[in-house]
TrEMBL record:
<keyword id="KW-0732">Signal</keyword>
<keyword id="KW-0245">EGF-like domain</keyword>
<keyword id="KW-0325">Glycoprotein</keyword>
<dbReference type="GO" id="GO:0007229">
    <property type="term" value="P:integrin-mediated signaling pathway"/>
</dbReference>
<dbReference type="GO" id="GO:0016477">
    <property type="term" value="P:cell migration"/>
</dbReference>
<dbReference type="GO" id="GO:0005178">
    <property type="term" value="F:integrin binding"/>
</dbReference>
<keyword id="KW-1133">Transmembrane helix</keyword>
<dbReference type="Pfam" id="PF07965">
    <property type="entry name" value="Integrin_B_tail"/>
</dbReference>
<dbReference type="InterPro" id="IPR036349">
    <property type="entry name" value="Integrin_bsu_tail_dom_sf"/>
</dbReference>
<keyword id="KW-1015">Disulfide bond</keyword>
<keyword id="KW-0677">Repeat</keyword>
<dbReference type="InterPro" id="IPR057243">
    <property type="entry name" value="Integrin_I-EGF_CS"/>
</dbReference>
<dbReference type="GO" id="GO:0001968">
    <property type="term" value="F:fibronectin binding"/>
</dbReference>
<dbReference type="GO" id="GO:0019901">
    <property type="term" value="F:protein kinase binding"/>
</dbReference>
<dbReference type="GO" id="GO:0005925">
    <property type="term" value="C:focal adhesion"/>
</dbReference>
<dbReference type="GO" id="GO:0045202">
    <property type="term" value="C:synapse"/>
</dbReference>
<dbReference type="GO" id="GO:0098609">
    <property type="term" value="P:cell-cell adhesion"/>
</dbReference>
């Protein structure tokens, strides 16, 4: 495949290639997910391609999940109880919802904006009183979750 030389009808592969035809790349760069893990920690990198071992996840780096809750829906109840002391987790908030740092901001234009180094989700969810509330959710390079909520 151009990734080695033929000696006596046997391929001798260049560095970072393997296989009988040197067609298997050992480079894991194409398997790197946005969180810095190989195949998002949900698969193995084989010949430069992710083989997702968790069937819910798919895509080139095992990051797509059609059946998973989005970040906003997943954290809505905890944000609601921490910021406004109401919602389904109001009574269990201190046990279940302390996994992120929370900052209250005055208005939506004070929320963090895209362009920062950490992946950022902008969320608009309804609370128990059928009112909209807005927050952002991001995880920094140390793995710490940060939530900014509009008061």
């Amino acid at each position: 495949t151009g990734n080695g030389i033929c000696k006596c009808r046997v391929c001798e592969c260049f560095p970072n290639f393997t296989g009988s035809a040197c067609d298997c790349s050992l480079d894991t760069t194409p398997c790197m997910a946005s969180n810095g893990q190989i195949c998002n920690g949900r698969g193995t990198c084989e010949c430069g391609t992710c083989n997702c071992t968790d069937p819910k996840f798919q895509g080139p780096t095992c990051e797509m999940c059609q059946t998973c809750l989005g970040v906003c829906a997943e954290h809505k109840d905890c944000v609601q109880c921490r910021a406004f002391e109401k919602g389904e987790k109001k009574d269990t908030c201190s046990q279940e919802c302390m996994h992120f740092n929370m900052t209250l901001v005055e208005s939506r234009d004070k929320l963090p904006q895209p362009g920062q180094p950490d992946p950022l989700s902008h969320c608009k969810e309804k609370d128990v009183d059928d009112c909209w509330f807005y927050f952002t959710y991001s995880v920094n390079s140390n793995g710490e979750a940060n939530v900014h909520v509009v008061e």
